[in-house]
Write a structure and sequence with these properties.
Elements: H1 16-25, H2 30-37, H3 46-59, H4 66-77, H5 90-101, H6 108-141, H7 153-175, H8 179-206, H9 212-240, H10 243-270, H11 283-291, H12 293-302, H13 310-315, H14 319-329, H15 333-354, H16 359-365, H17 367-379, H18 385-398, H19 403-419, H20 423-430, H21 433-453, H22 462-479, H23 486-494, H24 500-552, H25 561-569, H26 572-591
Helix pairs in contact: 1-15, 2-25, 3-4, 4-15, 6-9, 6-10, 6-11, 6-12, 6-18, 7-9, 7-24, 8-9, 8-11, 8-12, 9-10, 10-11, 10-19, 14-15, 16-17, 17-23, 17-24, 18-19, 18-24, 19-22, 21-22, 21-24, 23-24
Subcellular location: Membrane
Catalytic activity: myo-inositol(out) + H(+)(out) = myo-inositol(in) + H(+)(in)
GO molecular function: transmembrane transporter activity
């Protein structure tokens, strides 16, 4: 969604219901007004909708399409009730019907855009993992070998962590917070072009560095290519996709990031045996780091062949361009008219809600928003996967693998991570976000302990290598459908519409900050705690993650805005106490298969007819 500060538009003629909404919105609390945002067109008579649609078209340079926007406004009120609208033509009804029955039958341009977003995700994955193999070579060359036998071992471990963590430090303190101004000024495509350009140039820059300090600076600027892109690309896909497949397309971000992670290991293997040339020392690691720039270059060439986000065009008052964009992304003009009118209505509503309020302050001062921010913080918390993604080759070498064996084993982890990301496309909307986390956090803790404890197996035993690799692969299998896709999906839906951009910036900044913490500390953890302690440390954080999700992260699967407001309006204290009571109940029912009576539901929308009402809010007293 466009940044809320994007909503400066020229004065236009407002319909009667828009004026009424604007008059009343300023008197609504953010928690109540989101109920209105669930569908601002509800309860408006069809006659008024047709008048509104015609006025909208005439007021925004689309007067020649007035009849189309009259029908589009009617469809926008209830997209599934089109069969009862006599004004629609047969072709229009066929297109709307096929949208439901054949949801993947979309224009080629939409799939071209999906390919763009998938490559952008793969760029990020490669940026993260090419350093896994490269640091085996540049660390000794630059005098920061973490395994050096002299007294500089501790210093070198910190410096290696600092160099590897540089992009994530930039993302946390600068990159993610550039998302809003970049999108406001340059649009979605422009932001993707700029970040891909940074990724390409800094990848080449990394390959020509001549000291660890120089490499640190190059990798720090790589964070400008990673941070805004990680926030913008999922939003761009969501704004361009039709509602029926929006969730699946947004999920593609994590799936193809996993592919990029695997591709990074492929690059490490491909360039492993490249020999040095005259006057070039370390050509293999230089090619590894530079290779991540290739898919970024593809994005640079490709991005402006895609249409800009229609929502961004509307935020700038460029309705003709928004309609042209939607026509390229939809099968029939009625779908484009429907979506454009609904985007306009939602943005007008959001614009009024934003009046005289700071979205960043409301993220933490409004209890409903603060609980969403806390839940997003928790799901973005440490689980330890980045230690494996960034340093698996070092871990395997500690297990007495050879360098090439270590990279091959690392590629196996990348392949497991990619393959097991696909089930999440189904399970995240059926099993639920919270349930996936509650099931996978304990498994990740167990497999990390398994990996760490395997280092106590004697070095001359083949079982040592097998158990270490198996533990890491099982960890990847547990991570990929759970903590892998859930954080970005959860954060994208937890926040109300009017602060969603700043909420996503906060969530992604948290994610990259913890990536930075893991990346900078893990080499030293390996040195000080040994692999047993290092993996045990992250296993402990997974147990903490399980408890934090259990107590403070509510389910958001398939909930409307109104239901999400109910969910996040339940006090943290009430939610935690209810879940503590529910834990033994669920263990008896689902693990021991015992017959136990149902617990009363926590939320109003789950309450059985005539059943006990447990839902409670404390917005008035502002408790967390």
């Amino acid at each position: 969604m466009p940044p809320r500060s994007d909503l400066e538009k020229p004065n236009v003629q407002k319909s009667e219901h828009e004026a009424s909404f604007h008059e009343n919105a300023s008197h609504l609390s953010p928690e109540n007004v989101n109920v209105k945002l669930a569908n601002p067109l509800s309860d408006i008579p069809h006659e008024q909708l047709m008048v509104d649609g015609e006025n909208f078209a005439k007021s925004h340079g689309l007067g020649h399409l007035s009849d189309l926007f009259q029908r589009g406004a009617l469809v926008a009120q209830d997209p599934l009730a089109f069969e009862d609208l006599p004004l629609l033509t047969k072709e229009e009804k066929d297109a709307l019907r096929r949208e439901v029955t054949h949801k993947w039958d979309q224009p080629k341009m939409l799939y071209y855009l999906v390919i763009l977003c998938s490559i952008a995700a793969a760029v990020q994955g490669m940026d993260e993992t090419v350093t896994n193999g490269a640091n085996l070579f540049y660390a000794p060359q630059f005098g920061i070998d973490p395994n050096t036998p002299d007294g500089d071992q501790g210093r070198n471990q910190w410096l290696l962590g600092l160099v590897n963590s540089a992009p994530y430090l930039c993302c946390a303190v600068l990159g993610c917070w550039l998302t809003e101004p970049l999108n406001r000024i340059f649009g979605r495509r422009g932001t993707i072009f700029i970040t891909a350009t940074f990724s390409f140039l800094t990848c080449i820059w990394q390959g020509v560095t001549n000291s660890w300090q120089h490499l640190f600076v190059a990798r720090f600027f790589l964070g400008i290519g990673i941070g805004p892109k990680s926030s913008t690309v999922p939003v761009y896909a969501a704004e361009c996709a039709p509602p029926a497949i929006r969730g699946a397309l947004v999920m593609m971000w994590q799936t193809w990031t996993a592919f990029g992670i695997m591709l990074g290991f492929v690059a490490d293997l491909a360039f492993f045996r490249v020999p040095d040339k005259p006057h070039i020392t370390g050509l293999n690691w230089r090619l590894m780091l530079s290779s991540a720039g290739i898919p970024a270059l593809i994005i640079i060439v490709q991005v402006f062949f895609c249409p800009e986000s229609p929502r961004w065009y509307v935020s700038k008052g460029r309705y003709n361009k928004a309609y042209e964009s939607l026509v390229r992304l939809r099968n029939n003009p009625i779908q484009a008219a429907r979506d454009l009118y609904y985007i306009h209505v939602l943005l007008e509503a959001e614009k009024e809600i934003r009046r005289d309020r700071s979205p960043f302050l409301e993220l933490f001062t409004v209890p409903r928003n603060r609980r969403a921010a806390m839940a997003s913080f928790i799901v973005m918390f440490i689980c330890g996967v980045n230690a494996i993604a960034y340093y698996s080759a070092n871990v395997f070498i500690n297990a007495k693998f050879t360098q090439i064996q270590a990279l091959l084993a690392s590629f196996g982890f990348g392949a497991v991570n990619f393959v097991f990301a696909f089930p999440a496309i189904y399970t995240i909307d059926t099993f639920g976000r919270r349930n996936l986390l509650l099931c996978t956090f304990p498994l990740m803790a167990i497999f990390l302990l398994m990996t760490g404890f395997a280092f106590w197996i004697p070095e001359d035993s083949q079982a040592r290598i097998a158990v270490i690799a198996l533990g890491i692969y099982l960890f990847g299998i547990a991570y990929s459908p759970g903590e892998g896709p859930v954080p970005f999906t959860y954060s994208a839906e937890a926040f109300p519409l009017y602060i969603r951009d700043i909420g996503m910036s906060f969530a992604t900044a948290v994610c990259w900050f913890f990536n930075f913490v893991i990346s900078i500390t893990f080499p030293r953890l390996l040195g000080a705690f040994k692999p047993q302690g290092a993996f045990g440390w992250y296993a402990g954080w997974n147990i903490f993650g399980f408890l934090a999700v259990l107590l403070f992260v509510p389910e958001t699967k398939a909930l409307s805005l109104e239901e999400l407001d109910q969910v996040f309006s339940v006090s943290s204290r009430l939610h935690a106490s209810y879940q503590l009571r529910a834990l033994p109940h669920n263990i008896k029912r689902h693990i021991f298969r015992m017959k136990v009576p149902d617990m009363p539901p926590l939320y109003e929308h789950d309450r059985l007819v005539g059943g006990p009402k447990v839902f409670s809010t404390d917005s008035e007293n502002g408790s967390a």
